[in-house]
Amino acid sequence: MTRLPILTMTSPEDSVASDSSVSAASEIPSETATAVRRLPRWLKRPLPQPGMAWTSGIISDLRLETVCESAKCPNRSECWSSKTATFMIGGNVCTRPCGFCAVPKGKTEALEIDEPERVAEAAARLGLRYVVITSVTRDDLSDGGAEHWFRTILAVRERTGAQIEVLTPDFRGNRDAVTRVIAAQPDVFNHNTETVPRLYHRVRRNADYQRTLDLLRQVREEAPHIPTKSGLMLGLGETLDELLEVLADLRSAGCSMLTLGQYLQPSAEHLPVERYLPPEEFDEIGETARKLGFSMVASGPFVRSSYHAGEMAEQVL
Ligand code: SF4
Questions:
Q1: Pairing with 208, which of 16, 49, 51, 192 sits 20 to 30 Å away (CA)?
Q2: Which atom of ligand 1 is nearest to the CA of 79?
Q3: Per residue in 306-317, pLDDT tens?
Q4: Residue nearest to ligand 1 atom 7, measured at CA
């Protein structure tokens, strides 16, 4: 069991949470509505770092999307300066109305047939040895984009020889679609739980908690050699007991890698932050997760699914 260093960076993001109060059911210590209006000190970050332009230039030159930009990830300056990014395939428009996510929603466009090769080219130019690929949810496609996923994984591997982590949508429970992605043999299969089941209708509408667990279980059953990974955002109103139940469910589904990060409201139109958890609390929850048997845990305010994903994976691959 390896412990990933706890990541406690601060952020340039100046998002301001609403004055919603903390759930009365919360067993995690409450903060006042006033407190959640301002970012706590541990979420303050230095000015953007130099060196982003090179990464940005490659991505724009190859007309690619990244979740780093589309989801307004607070780590973009750090990651892009380090010449890493998470590619988002299948377009920049999502068919799901999740209340936490900044990726544009609405009418999608046809898949771009040459996107897999362009992702592979970008990974090669960036010199990536560990490539993380995600996608928007494409409920408008009969296979949810699984064939596109398959082609992209193969293209990246052929061009770069890099290890590949996929962070997939749930494919609406289409097991054949999941099997198709598995067939491309990603090195890590990641599918996020995002939050506790009680909050799904508000946070992750059109998704289903059991479906997420089923997907993770399916991957373990069909490809026991591929580690599965999942992540949750904290601070959306979940209770500690609810969170621990989810972690137990994930372990039962065979999930061995876990990311826990602070939810940050990307705009006033998105769900408010209910609570900012201090770094020490992330440490404690991370320790609890390790005791539950996760072999790799990253827990900290700025942890995201793909944050330092290569370092996390090298402990288990
Ligand atoms: S943490 Fe992931 S999504 Fe965020 S900037 Fe880094 S690579 Fe991109």
A1: 16
A2: 6
A3: 999 999 999 999
A4: 85
